[in-house]
Design goal:
mainly alpha; 2% strand; globular
Length: 173
């Protein structure tokens, strides 16, 4: 069975998407002031500028893999993803937009710089850090069930570089 169809029907994927929906609902109305109205790359996607990058878990990376397979990126382009030492997220379009936005990892969903704003530009609502941490633990627990031999998170660019070297093989889940 091909990987993409198996993942599309996976209960692990359904659980992950439910956790992502909870995350998005929790953060609704929050935005980074530095990204509003920009047509170029958001600063949070420049890992050199922020000094950090997402560390998706095994189950999250399977969702990224699925999104890449479903995207308009050719298999040749996927094999070229990315050089691990590049500073920008390799999944940005020429316009600086995320190519897998709906499937972006938890770390991308929850990143807010010190300029995070609440609804209508107020600073009254700050990211709910305890609730975000709890959701992160639930994703880690899901990953431990999904890949008990290797549930750990990994640096996003290195994992993508490894994915770029893999063939579009099958691995039923």
């Amino acid at each position: 069975m091909a990987r993409a169809p198996a993942w599309r029907r996976s209960h692990f994927r359904a659980e992950l998407q439910a956790l992502y929906a909870e995350t998005d609902a929790l953060l609704e109305g929050l935005a980074c002031a530095c990204t509003e109205g920009l047509s170029h790359t958001a600063p949070c996607c420049d890992f050199a500028a922020t000094g950090r990058e997402p560390y998706p878990t095994a189950v999250e990376f399977e969702e990224v893999r699925h999104a890449l397979l479903a995207s308009s990126l050719s298999s040749r382009a996927r094999r070229r993803l990315p050089l691990a030492d590049h500073a920008l997220c390799p999944l940005l379009s020429e316009a600086g937009r995320c190519l897998i936005y709906a499937s972006r990892p938890f770390g991308c969903r929850t990143f807010f710089c010190h300029q995070a704003l609440g609804p209508r530009g107020s600073r009254s609502q700050v990211p709910p850090r305890k609730a975000i941490s709890a959701l992160g633990r639930r994703i880690a627990d899901l990953s431990a069930r999904f890949a008990p031999q290797d549930p750990a998170s990994r640096p996003f660019r290195r994992a993508l570089a490894r994915l770029g070297r893999e063939k579009d093989s099958t691995r039923p889940r």
